């Protein structure tokens, strides 16, 4: 099941709605309907409070979307590709294909979002001054955009402030070391927020948890990218690939898996890759039907493939984001190898040991 729904394209960037957004939207409307100003419209009679809170919630997430579009446009200008913008539970995320290691570029991309939120806050503040029937609504949007800008400037991953801090450090030291320093500061901030939140506000505790996880993940991902720097897919791929025909029965495939201890196979027809089949696909077939069902009926046809000269760090990132466990390596239309999570973990362990020595 896909976790996101694609809505449209903005400046050529796919806009997606995470399923969590559909659950949080009515919650926000309910909270804003009963909160007192400036954080809600509880001072208004029903159903006016619900109407205001619905409009405010939609405009809030529109503001978040504009914040992410600002990041994306500056990133595109700096030559960084954007895969998608996703609206989700805790806001929005612009998914970049790579993190710019040029400190100035990262600082510009990261600061563009908060600057946009500050600009929106200023615009809503002036609208509140000169639009008397909707002053409560515009003042609310001024407050939340100001809060969004300030929150994103907290110097901790995954917020923009953490990336700005890393860019400052990276102008004086190697990128990996800068990431570690910024992550350490982010973790300290998260610990302080968690301690404060336990006594005063449990929301702070929850936010602190996500900040700590975000800082740890950024540090881990950057360390992995650094280890894999300069390596290509061909450096770690398994070359002697065991493949299967689409006309093989599921039962025959299961026996092959047991004998060869593989959990998935590229499916080849007339020398061409037509799909990938895994143990998860097999499990969907009832036991009594496995003799009759063929692989072509259950295989995945939308297959992620790699070229032997693709950077290893890029495919590792894609596999992590999509949850794919194995990627066929294709050259001139033929499968010449395969990269699995096991190959990546083994290489990571060896490279880590080599770096220690």
What is shown here, in short?
It contains twelve helices and eight strands.
Description of the molecule:
This protein has 357 residues and is an alpha+beta fold. It folds into two domains: 4-227, no CATH class; 233-356, Roll (CBS-domain), CATH 3.10.580. It contains twelve helices and eight strands. The longest helix has 30 residues, at 48-77. 31% of the residues are buried.
Q: Number of domains in the coordinates?
A: 2
Detail the poorly predicted runs: none
Q: Roughly what is the average pLDDT, rounded to an integer? A: 84
User: Going across the major beta sheet, what is the strand order?
Assistant: 1-2-3-4
The number of strands is 8
- What is Rg? 25 Å
Helix share of residues?
A: 55-70%
Overall morphology: globular
The helix tally amounts to: 12
Q: Return the structural class.
A: alpha+beta
SSE blueprint and pairings:
Blueprint: E1 4-10, E2 13-18, H1 19-34, H2 48-77, E3 82-88, E4 91-96, H3 103-130, H4 135-152, H5 160-170, H6 175-200, H7 202-227, H8 250-260, E5 264-269, E6 272-278, H9 279-283, H10 295-298, H11 312-322, E7 326-331, E8 334-340, H12 341-356
Helix pairs in contact: 1-2, 2-3, 2-4, 3-4, 3-5, 5-6, 6-7
